[in-house]
Structures are given as C-alpha cells and as structure tokens.
Amino acid sequence: xxxxxxxxxxxxxxxxxxxxxxxxxxxxxxxxxxxxxxxxxxxxxxxxxxxxxxxxxxxxxxxxxxxxxxxxxxxxxxxxxxxxxxxxxxxxxxxxxxxxxxxxxxxxxxxxxxxxxxxxxxxxxxxxxxxxxxxxxxxxxxxxxxxxxxxxxxxxxxxxxxxxxxxxxxxxxxxxxxxxxxxxxxxxxxxxxxxxxxxxxxxxxxxxxxxxxxxxxxxxxxxxxxxxxxxxxxxxxxxxxxxxxxxxxxxxxxxxxxxxxxxxxxxxxxxxxxxxxxxxxxxxxxxxxxxxxxxxxxxxxxxxxxxxxxxxxxxxxxxxxxxxxxxxxxxxxxxxxxxxxxxxxxxxxxxxxxxxxxxxxxxxxxxxxxxxxxxxxxxxxxxxxxxxxxxxxxxxxxxxxxxxxxxxxxxxxxxxxxxxxxxxxxxxxxxxxxxxxxxxxx
Length: 442
What we know:
Blueprint: H1 7-22, H2 27-32, H3 39-50, H4 53-63, H5 70-83, H6 96-109, H7 115-129, H8 131-138, H9 142-146, H10 150-159, H11 164-171, E1 177-181, H12 188-197, E2 202-205, E3 209-212, E4 229-231, H13 239-244, E5 253-257, H14 264-272, E6 275-281, H15 284-297, E7 302-305, E8 320-326, H16 341-344, H17 348-364, E9 368-378, H18 387-396, E10 400-409, H19 422-426, E11 431-438
Parallel strand pairs: 5-6, 5-8, 6-7, 8-9
Antiparallel strand pairs: 1-3, 1-4, 2-3, 9-11, 10-11
Helix pairs in contact: 1-3, 1-5, 1-6, 3-5, 4-5, 5-6, 5-7, 6-7, 10-11
C-alpha cells in the first residue's frame, strides 16, 4: 500500500509549478513533467490557486511591504488561496493550522533561506487574524475581485457589456467532463447504460455527448482503448454538425481540417460522414497525436505537418468541398479548463493572433470550391478573434455569405434546443462559430 503523500511535499511541488507559470510556461507542460505520484495533488492545488491568483497577489501586497520573490512568493500565494473562505469545503480544503504548518515545512523542502519560514508563518497568521479587513480591502481591486488580469477584465467588459460579469465568474468554476460517443462503434444509449452499470453517473447532452457527474481518468472509461468515446467539450462538438448538416456532401467529399491537432474535431467529422479528409497541423509532434487519436477510434484521414497558410507547400490544386478552420487564438473561452491562460496572455497577444487568423482565412478561401462551406471557429470570447474578424472578412470578399451560425458562445452557456435539461447543467466552453458559404463567381 502506498503511504499518504505529505501535504508539504505537494505544496512545495505546486509552488514550483506556479512559479513556472508566472515565468511563462504552460501549466499543462509543467504538470506533464511532475512526478506521477505528486501530479494529482499538485494539479488540484495549482488549479485552485490560479483561480484565485489575482486575490492572492493583492493580499501579498497588503501583508508585506517587501514581498519575497520566486518560489517563496508562489508558496505564500498558494497558502493564502487555501485559507480563503471559498476554499472551505472545496476540493482542496484543509484546516487553517494545517495549511500554515505544512507551508512552513514546504519552504524547507524548497531549500530557501531559513529566515523565510518565519516571514511566511507571520504573514499567514496575520491574514488569519485580520482576514475580514484584508479581504474587504483586497476586494476594492478589480484584479482581485475577478481573479483575471486588469486588462482582461476591461476587454471582456468592453466586448460583452451585458455578460462580462457572468463570463468572468464562470471562468473561475471548474468545467464539467464531457464525452463524445463514437457513433461508429457504439450507440449513445448503450454507452450510457454501460457507464451507469459501472457506477459512473452521466446524462446525455447535445447530439453525441455525455456529461459525467464527476471527472474520472480516461482509463476508467469503459471501451476507451476500443475507441468508444473521446473527451470533448459540448461547444467543440458543434463543429462537425455545423459544417456538415445541410451541406449535402456526397460520400467521399473532399474536406480540409486546417489546424487539426489534437484531432477531436477531425475525428468527429469522420464519425459523422464518409469523407476524403486532409488534416493539417504545423507541428509534426502534434500530427502524431492526431494519428494516435484516429487509430484508437478506428478512423482514417491523411495527416500532414504543414502551415495551412502556405498553400503552395501542401495543396494539390483540387478544390475542397468544405473546410474547418479552428484557428489559433487566445483560448480566452476555455479558462475553466486552463486556468493558467489568463495569467500567461498579454494584451498584445490578441492583435498578434488575430493577424494569424486573418492570414489563414485569406490563404484558405481560394482553396474552397464554389458552393463550398468554410466553418471558422476559435475558442475565444474576444470579438477581435470572432465577430470582428468575420465582419471584416465579409467586407473584403463579396463571394462570401454568412450562413446561420452561433456566433459567440459564452462560457457556461446552455446548448439551445439540446437533448434534455442536462445541457443547462453542463454549459459549454466559450467559443465562436461562423459558417461561410462561397458563392459561385458572377
């Protein structure tokens, strides 16, 4: 039997993880290199801390005129998030005295100067004594109140004046685990029964989706290795039906998935129809992930490592019947799943990524045949990466017509016309969808 992992070990590892995020590294990448025995606990701590990181930063400034730097600051911030009232009863809930004691021990494991232990101990105990006053003062700070960078709050408020508070609040709640059933391997009703027989509570959502009441490791999912399902948010599951429904594509229609990795939408397209599909991604390693996913699901497509915008390097000149462009973006709509995104992004990233999206749209439009459809999507709530991008594209291209499309979907929004009331409980990631028809010349 494995002995319990001391909280101090997990705190020390989580502090290193948070410091790496502050230095610009992706939380996903850092967690992948965390020892397996520590990873679940460290992930839970890091997710919790990053959802309260704005408040933690302001509290540190109120508690110390000269705050520590590096791992000591990260550990102090982490400990403060565990002492917040919101942490009581949560997934990482600990008694206050345990947090203080184990944080001091974690400092020793981080091999920091001995004097820092007394400093951190004093800060945490002062917070506990003056909690109400400190929280009230911290709440006057916009970044602390919403736990997003100030510029991010301002941008969402400008883009969505009626919904900005709901968007920010939803970002700080965990996202549900949603599956997409591979209809080529198993029926959704049959798979639901299998899940329930194994004690996994689940409800149908959308067309092919199942929402789990509680997230589980994929190796616990029945039929995972046999390709019976994939993990995919409900918003992402809209891409395939949006592109295919009503298109009247013949069997073997030529379809491009332009920025395909890791292959979730690629697979869904192939599960829904018989297609001659080309999947591109600029990163060869990510192309291997696409191939691995397709193999597990029993699906076939041509996968090429290529920059989709450099059409002279990969396009054979034959027009596509349909194109899916899931363009690189700020990922501002999936903060529930990636709480580090808001702290990694910078204001200038929006314009830089919007320029990449424009480059891809302009390069791919000539490869689409007359009467064909291009579905442009991003997992962003920023209008520069969605509504504004498409409005400008339509002005430049008289042969482009906007078909009925969802537009911007807000984080936590229910699927309109879904299969049942469970959709309202799940809510989707933030996304943008625009379906464009290419009119015949003349």
